[in-house]
Amino acid sequence: MLVAVAATAAFCLSTPLLAQTRSISTSGLGSEQSARAAWQPVRDLSKGSAAATDNSGQIRLVDHQSPAATQRQATQRKPSAAQANTSRLRPVGHSATANSVLSEPIVMEGEMPMDGQIMLEPMQHYGGEPMHMGGSYGCDDMGCDGSCGPAMGGCDGASCSSGYCSNGDPMCGEYRDCNTIRPCITLCWPQDGWFSAEYLMWWQDGVSLPPLASTGRLSDREPLANGSVLYGGNDVITDNLNGGRLDFGFWFDKCHTWGIGGGGFALDRGTSSFAGGSQNDPLVRPIITVLDNPAPNMDELGEAMALVNYSQVGHTGTLNIDVDSRLTGWNIYLRHFRTAEQGCTHTGPCSCPTRWCARSEHRLGFRSVELDEGIGIDSNIMVAGAGPGDGPLTFALTESFRTRNQFNGIDLGWYHTRSIGYWNFDLGLQLGVGNMRQSVQIAGSTIVNGTGPALNGGLLALNSNIGNYERNEFAVLPEFNAKIGYQLTDQLRATFGYTFLYMSNVVRPGDQIDRIIDTAQIPNANAPTPTGTFPRFAFDNTDYWAQGLSFGLNYRW
């Protein structure tokens, strides 16, 4: 009985041994089948180090964290480049070649894959949603390229180079150089700054003039009053004016969060003139006189004329009128970065993925703008003598009406820029709030027969209105700017823009001329000039605008 039991046990134990020996002898097909049965892909790369189960018997698609890497992580040591590539090698199996690995490493973002290499998709979202970077935009954040750069198959521009600190634009249109140490011999420039120079082609609100030269009386109340205006009665200096504008400054920090800048602009002095004489016969200056004893059916005012060149009554003379206008200004400001965002878009005929970014900032500063204008009138008249023995009389009249508007106030601004590839688009709004210093200067003189002292007063500038007048008025000065830029190099940009400027509460010279005069005040050689009521002076407020195009270059360092 015992012999039978022992024989049965020996037979049962020998069966598994024979099966295991048969599996080892056919390792070619059996190892492949067992490997397929044990294969489990590792899909969650982020949990590669969390699994504590021994998976040495599995073939892994990606070994995201090798045991060596786990040990290094526990000791808080940064792996070298060679170790990092070794940790990404893929084991093949656990048979006789279980310790061998494939030679291709895993390719990360920014690298070009070779045949047989594994390409990992980036872990960020780049479907076009803006990424709000806040105040640290461009510093310790994703580079300007984001996921649209050359590494992802995109086509980027010079204004959007990648990297934390490169010779491109890591901060959306803002240039920053890595060479923080520069030689300084006699003059040290700030590390980061800008300078722009622009040519201006602007138009302005013309100078409004009353009728200053005509062929006769202008009123239609009398049959003889059929004169036509030769100069005045309209706006002058309405053609384009050339000018220039400069802007410069520097940043306080490498993130371009706070900066200080200043600049100025000036337009060439615009002019308009009239010269009349014997070629304009008759040539008169139209005025309105105060009648001493007006007829019952007439007003106390009547159209009249001061003769300049009227051959029928023995007047020979010339009349020259010059009008000028000039606009200048300067400002100093602090600029503060507020928000920024970036994303991806598709541009061009090939619909190439291109990165876009936007940046907004606020400005606070001081602004000063000056509008200087004037009207000068010179007339020389020779009157034939009254009798056979009387010689001619000559009169030289000089009159001037000048105005000056000086705005000084606080300037508030908001600027927004958007970059797409090599192109840049800027929008700016500024509002100046402050004081307008208004100045009016009226002068006139007459010299009779070319000798003797000049008499006070001319024709439109007489004792009743001659003088210097000043006052202060509250004024606002809004300005709108739109500009398109193209990046020529990393540091140089060509720009084309449009500007609109408005000023309230200004005085202009044509509005300060009163054509109503008291003829008793007109100087003559026989009696001193009395003082009358007309012409009168009163501040006449109006507004002013200027607008135009700009062409320039912007350099950043």
From TrEMBL:
UniProt xrefs under InterPro entries: BBP7
Extent of Polar residues compositional bias: 67-88
The protein's name in its UniProt record: Uncharacterized protein
Organism domain of life: Bacteria
One Pfam family named in its UniProt record: BBP7
Keywords: Signal
Annotated region described as Disordered, given as residue ranges: 46-104
Cleaved signal peptide residues: 1-19
